[in-house]
Amino acid sequence: MADFFFSRIQSFRHAFRGWFYVLRTQRNAWIHSAIATAVFIVGLWLRLSLIEWAIIILTAAFVFTAEFINTAIEVVVDLASPDEHPLAKIGKDVGAAAVLVAALAAILVGVLILGPPLWLKLTTLLTGN
Fold first, then answer.
1. How far apart are CA 29 and CA 71, in angstroms?
2. Is the pTM of this model over 0.85?
3. Would you say residue 101 lies in a domain?
4. Residues with catalytic roles
5. Strand (E) or helix (H) holding 29
6. Residue 32 near residue 103, CB atoms below 8 Å
7. Among 63, 90, 64, 67, which residue's Cα sits nearest to residue 77?
8. How far is Cα 72 from Cα 65, in angstroms, rounded to an integer?
9. What DSSP string describes 89-128?
């Protein structure tokens, strides 16, 4: 039983090491983090419902997952093909496209969920009604 728990702890260590690697080496991960933080702060201010929070959290996780997978693809491609190769470039480009799709979807989700209540709150603040 002790071996089971030790191996689970090791798995978490590996996962966090990967997470910190992405944050340390990928500028876009910092951009995703800053935007996610801003969205969470706005969500708290707007008092989102539980369903809205679930959608926001899943969407943010989707973007980070795409970024993590893209980074893994880039590292493995660099290992397998240190010299430039057209197929290596395609692999990296497709990984980057996955992040782009996730980020664009997150923007749409953010606009749909945060847009109406944010507009209402800002209008009320600015007009005093």
1. 10
2. yes
3. yes
4. 67
5. helix 27-46
6. yes
7. 90
8. 11
9. HHHHHHHHHHHHHHHHHHHHHHHHHHHHHHHHHHHHHHH-
Q: Read off the CATH number of the domain in which 102 is found.
A: 1.10.287.3610
Q: Is 102 part of any domain? A: yes
d(CA 109, CA 122): 19
* C-alpha of 6 from chain center: 29
Q: Give the Cα separation of 67 and 41 in Å (integer).
A: 22
Would you say residue 126 lies in a domain? no
Q: 69-109: per-residue pLDDT in tens?
A: 999 999 999 999 999 999 999 999 999 999 999 999 999 99
Would you state the structure tokens that stand for residue 23, as one six-digit string? 């944050």
Tell whether 120 is covered by a domain. Answer: no
* Confidence band for 56, pLDDT divided at 50, 70 and 90: very high
| Residue 81 near residue 88, CB atoms below 8 Å | yes
The range of the structural domain enclosing residue 34 comes to 10-114
> Could you give the number of structural domains in the chain?
1
